Amino acid sequence: MNLSIRKINAIFKLKTQSIFTNMSIMVAPLMAIGYVLIMKLVMPDTGFTGAYLLGFGVLFNVILGGIMMGSYPLSEEKEKNTLRVLMTSSVNGMEFLIGSLLPSIILIVVVNIILVPISSISISKISWGPYLLFTTLGGLISLLLGYVIGIYSKSQMQSSNISMPFIVLLTFTPVFQAANKSLAHIMSYTYSGVITEFISKMLTSGIYNFDVKNIVVMVSWFIICLVVFVYAYSKHGLDYE
């Protein structure tokens, strides 16, 4: 498959503009940072640990931000027909995917790094390799999930309605895990559950050893979402009708 840098760059610029000019999307990374700051400043004596704050902040950023950055711009572009010219100029699925992923994943990674000092966690306590690997892969999964939702949505409103159950279920994984052991076991097979477990173990034990189950869960989610996206894109494209 031949990739056109010109087409990838065109999609990259369009996606970057869509993300940074749409406050409905930018509210997600801002909410992740704001949540951590509010919990620290407003309720300093409630026993919230750095692991708890970082875990929730990362989930807000990775899940809420990723799904919204994937689905909202795509559904908006379909409504306004801003991608019609690119689609009719033979942009293939891989060019669209690369150009769309880059600005979103860069923003997700930057915010995940910023969340560490904001959570009052020493930089030396973070296993940066695994941290960036798990959180970035989680962001990619959320973005792919968002793209699939965007492809099947006719409008931003419909995209929001379809996204909400996924966002609530995955963002509040720690709440479900604390509520019930059976739910905790089920949620351990979600990529948000893996991220939550990773951050907790990393900060409580001081070191993180890669768990085969967690790696399999993350890779499986990524492959499944990628395959579903490729199928949806090849089957429907952006379906302007």
Low-pLDDT segments: none
How many structural domains are formed by the residues? 1
Rough outline:
globular
Assembly category: single chain
Please give the share of residues in helix.
over 70%
Distance between the termini: 28 Å
Q: What about the largest sheet?
A: none
- Element-level helix/strand string: HHHHHHHHHHH
Mean pLDDT: 86
Strand content: under 5%
Task: Outline the structure in words.
This protein is an all-alpha fold and 241 residues long. The mean pLDDT is 86. It has eleven helices and no strands. It has one domain (5-237). It is a multi-pass membrane protein.
What is the strand and helix layout of this fold?
Blueprint: H1 5-20, H2 23-42, H3 50-80, H4 84-87, H5 93-118, H6 128-152, H7 156-171, H8 173-179, H9 181-187, H10 191-205, H11 212-236
Give me a quick take on this structure.
The model has no long low-confidence stretch (mean pLDDT 86). The protein has helices at residues 5-20, 23-42, 50-80, 84-87, 93-118, 128-152, 156-171, 173-179, 181-187, 191-205, 212-236.
Key traits:
ABC-type transporter activity, membrane, 80% helix, transmembrane helix, mainly alpha, 241 residues, 0% strand, ABC transporter permease
